[in-house]
Amino acid sequence: MIREVQPVIVLGYQHAGSRWLQQLLAADRSLACNAGVDLLSACDHVAAAWRQAEGRPDRPLSALAAASVRSMAVSLITSTLARTGQRRWCEIATPGPAPATFLGLFPGTRYVCLHRSCPDVIGATLAAHPWGLSGFEYARYILAHPANTLAALAAYWAEHTELLLAFERENPTACIRVRYEDMVEDNVGRRELWDFLGLDRGMLPDAGPHAVPQDHGRDVPFPADNIPPGRLAKLDELHTVLGYSAVSHWPFPVKKSA
Description:
Layout: E1 8-11, H1 18-25, E2 31-34, H2 39-53, H3 63-84, E3 88-93, H4 97-105, E4 110-115, H5 118-128, H6 136-144, H7 149-170, E5 175-179, H8 180-185, H9 187-197, H10 229-242
Helix pairs in contact: 2-3, 2-4, 5-7, 6-7, 7-10
């Protein structure tokens, strides 16, 4: 049954390395790694419609509603697995209500909560948008900091990191926390991830610096003074939780995760 097959969801945000990590996981040929399907959001939207239709917008899904949403997802997953010949669904998602909805429908789901240091994410974002930020995902952060792109991206990173950490706390047995830097450089971290997901270690690619996209500009001093003091303190607090050095000390060597 699909709910027992343990779908794999890479939970991250823009320029955290989600697509790269999904491609790494695709080395295990049991995973059907999908791009652009957004099954989690589809399930969340249909679940919201059921709650509205049943007049219970703030309550858990009824048994009928849950069965209906699950059936829709199972049909899509089954079709994909039959076409590809693989056994497990793998998709990228962003933190928010949708991952929790999906976990309620498929309790065997395994979430890979992907983190990346704030300066690296900011550097990668600026490299990808040399003519200026655009897109829905950044709009409200830019509106809040119209004259300070650095502060806008710092706010984006902090909010998404806090959402990821909250999801980890609420669903500890369904999640594994990984850092982009460890996945690139550390075979031990990769083996721990492979074991958590129940993947074949024989298909585990070796780590190495050659695997990392060189988009973060570690040789460029990070202008931490351009971030408001209160925001900078929050970044340093989150970096401490994740095992990174303080943002204000960039560039820095990444500490090995515990």
